[in-house]
Every structure is written in C-alpha cells, then in structure tokens.
Specification:
Blueprint (H helix, E strand, L loop, with lengths): L13 H8 L4 E6 L6 H14 L4 E5 H4 L11 H20 L3 E5 L5 H13 L3 E8 L2 H7 L4 H6 L21 E4 L5 H14 L5
Parallel strand pairs: 1-3, 1-4, 2-3, 4-5
C-alpha cells in the first residue's frame, strides 16, 4: 500500500445523506453455490426496492468479472482478491446510503468475514444472506451447464465439486430456494430490512 497518500474527507457526513435520502446504507450480501438462486433473487430484490423509490444497486459475480475483476481467475488466491475488492466496493456504495446488493458465491468464511469487518469498521451495516440449495438441486438446475462440465473435468476448481464451499454458520438471513420461490425470498429480505429500520 502506498504511504504517501492522505484520506480526504468530504463536506457531507453520513447523517446528512441518511436524512436527505431517507434511507440507511447497507450491504445485502448473497452467498451460495452456483445456481442456488443468488442472481435471480438479487435482480428481483433490486427491482422491488427501486419501485419503492429506494436508492439501490446490484453487484453480480459474473458481471463484475467483465470489468473491475477481469484480471482475476478462479484459483483460491484470485477468489480471495475477488471478494476483497467487492467488499471494498460494496462498502463505498453503503457509505453513500445506497442499498448495495451483492450476488457472489464467496465460498470462504474468512473472506466474507473480512467484508463484514470492513463495513463494521466504517460503521456500516452488512447483512449476510445464505441462499441455500442442496448440491443435488443446483446440479439439476445447472442453467449454464457448469456442473456438468465440472463433473467431466472440463472446469477445474469449481465450487461444490472440486473446490470447497464453506456455508455460513450464523447468517443474518437463511433462504432455502428449494423450498420457496423468488417472490417469497424477496419478501423475507424486505421484511428484515424494514424490521431493522434500513427502509420504511
């Protein structure tokens, strides 16, 4: 890290943003296996919140790799750096009083904890949502054919097959997508945001 830099504070503080935008910044971090439903839920949640006139933005795992993280692969070191960057970016969104929705496999507990700690250090809220579906279910869904390719050995270090996924032990929200639909999943998250006064 460079040492010849100085943080330059702005003239707008967090409370002024919250007061003017009438919402608190928060990161809603969706984690789960590929094809568990993270991106589908994130898209529906973003649309729902925007229709409630809430300042909201979605960061999706695949989309971010087209730009910000285009230099990263899928080895463990790259996965760690991928989540570190998204932790920092989502923190910036939350700091702007935005509801940042992230949809990333984020397979390692330690990396998700780093993202949470980044937010907590800045006095920002971080909600971990475990989008949970059994491996047998996500393999059956397999919309991109990735599990089939991984089973055939065509994709190395694929989460859930040849690379680990460490499920959250105490997520803020636990959604079983093999037991509920997208509408219900969105309702559960919105109810949590309302109950904890992130939106009204």
């Amino acid at each position: 890290m460079s040492t010849n830099i100085t943080f330059h504070p702005g003239s707008v503080d967090a409370q002024e943003r919250v007061s003017l935008l009438k919402q608190k910044g928060v990161t809603v971090w969706l984690t789960g296996l590929s094809a568990s439903g993270k991106s589908t839920i994130a898209c529906a949640l973003e649309q729902h919140l925007l229709h409630l006139h809430k300042f909201t933005y979605r960061l999706d795992g695949d989309n971010v790799r087209f730009g910000l993280n285009r230099d990263l692969g899928f080895d463990e070191k790259s996965r760690v750096e991928n989540i570190r960057r998204i932790g920092e970016v989502s923190k910036l969104f939350a700091d702007s009083a935005c509801i940042a929705i992230t949809a990333f496999i984020s397979p390692y507990k330690a990396d998700r904890q780093v993202a949470r700690a980044l937010h907590e250090k800045g006095g920002l809220a971080f909600i971990e949502v475990f989008v949970d579906a059994p491996l047998s279910v996500v393999e059956q869904r397999d919309p991109k054919g990735l599990y089939k390719a991984a089973r055939a050995g065509e994709i190395k270090e694929f989460t859930g097959i040849s690379a680990p996924y460490e499920p959250p032990e105490n997520p803020d929200i636990h959604i079983r997508t093999d037991e509920c639909d997208v509408t219900t999943a969105v309702e559960v998250i919105v109810e949590y945001l309302t109950k904890h006064n992130y939106i009204s």
